[in-house]
Amino acid sequence: MEKKAVIKTGGKQYLVEPGALLTIEKLDGSETMEEGGSISFDEVLMVLDGDEPKVGTPTVEGASVSATFLGNGRNKKVETLKYKSKSNYQKRYGHKQPHSKVRIEAIK
Questions:
Q1: Series of mean pLDDT values for 10-residue runs along the chain (108 residues)
Q2: What is the pTM assigned to this prediction?
């Protein structure tokens, strides 16, 4: 059975395994990171290795997940419209959420 882990980053939790490509919330300081650089996620909530899962309280001691930074991007635009009938009022809003892409290399 392949090793898996649950990590927490950007206020969300992800189930990861080595070789997985992830689109996560934009990492702090990622503007200065170079593509192909190494990242370490230390907030590991659970590690699945074989039959026995290791569950942290709240994190697993000494566990970390290493990944390769692949770059930043932005999601598709989400548009909303505020409209009031009979008053000739409408307001459009748009938002593109920034994200980072990473490839999981190893679970330690």
A1: 92 96 94 93 94 92 96 97 97 98 96
A2: 0.85
The domain segmentation of the chain, as residue ranges, is 4-107
Contact (Cβ atoms closer than 8 angstroms) between residue 12 and residue 99: no
**E strand or H helix at 52, and its extent?**
strand 52-55
Phi and psi (nearest 5°) for 50?
Answer: 80, -135
Q: Looking up tokens 């938002």, which residue turns up?
A: 95
CA–CA separation, 71 vs 60, rounded Å?
Answer: 28
Tokens 């909303």 belong to 80
Token pair 């192909």: residue? 36
Q: Which two tokens stand for residue 71?
A: 């770059």
DSSP 41-53: E--EEEEEETTEE
